[in-house]
Write a structure and sequence with these properties.
The protein has two domains: 1-36, no CATH class; 39-110, 3-Layer(aba) Sandwich (Rossmann fold), CATH 3.40.50.10420. The chain has one helix spanning 61-65, and strands at residues 2-3, 8-9, 11-12, 20-22, 28-30, 35-36, 40-44, 47-48, 54-55, 74-78, 99-101, 106-107. Strands 7-10-11-12 form a four-stranded mixed β-sheet, with no helix packed on it. Strands 1-2 form a two-stranded antiparallel sheet. By secondary structure, it is mainly β.
């Protein structure tokens, strides 16, 4: 779920048939289920670079959320081979992913 005030994400248990509710962005989310800290997160990538840095959708939600999760989950970016950006310079707030899975292979940060 998106916390619009802090611009962070929270994660709730989902199971088949659980009650759902639309969030502020019209995305279905579990209603009144347990708050969890995931051990593995698949993170969408518009692009990615060496070192496991990702280009996201511009909201910064993952960069604000990941450092706050304890323990920090293993993170896998999902992107396309053509999304690799050779000259990307990460900013101080950018959080690298542990691995990136694209349509050809797994990319391990270097």
């Amino acid at each position: 779920m998106v916390d619009k005030v802090h611009k962070t994400l929270s994660f709730h248990a989902w199971y088949p048939g659980c009650p759902m509710l639309e969030d502020a962005y019209g995305i279905p989310k579990p209603k009144d289920t347990e708050l969890i800290v995931p051990t593995l997160l698949f993170v969408p990538c518009v692009g990615y670079s060496a070192g496991g840095y990702r280009l996201g959708y511009g909201g910064g939600f993952y960069d604000r959320t990941l450092p706050a999760l304890q323990p920090r989950p293993f993170t896998v970016g999902l992107g396309f081979t053509c999304g690799y950006v050779d000259d990307f310079e990460p900013e101080p707030h950018d959080v690298p992913l542990d691995a990136i899975l694209n349509d050809n292979d797994v990319v391990w940060p270097v």
